[in-house]
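hiii, so i know i said id send this last week but things got crazy w the move. better late than never?? heres the sequnce for the chain we talked about at the cafe, plus the structure i predicted for it. fair warning i was half asleep when i ran it
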Amino acid sequence: MGQVHVQVILTNHREAVMAQFGQLDPHRVHRYATEALIDTGATRSVIPPAVADRLGLFRIRRTDAQYADSRVEEVDVTEAVMVEILGRETAILPMVLGERVLLGVTVVAELDLTVDCKRNRLVPYQGTQDQPVFRV
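okay and structure toks below
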């Protein structure tokens, strides 16, 4: 299977909520548009330290990250970040590591998307192009 890259918009969730309630000018909310790698072998998502800093995110705790080669490293976890892909949004608590934005399988599932392996892209799973269907 080839790699799946998607365009994403990452937004500081705390600031977005503050702006929604009139406590912060909406133009001051930190957002970052970039390309992300979808990794269906990863459960959690990660963002590089530079992206966490650019979004003004607080590191709220530390956790262990296990790499594909079985190494384990303790890494930071940030406060909530909104991830927007194909007009769909979800909030995540990403781990801070690496050099690129990597989105794990939980983000894909929460957005009701699936990987089209033949075309190396994300597509709606149960919903339509405009409307996700969430399993409860």
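btw The longest helix spans residues 13-20. thought thatd interest u
miss u guys!!
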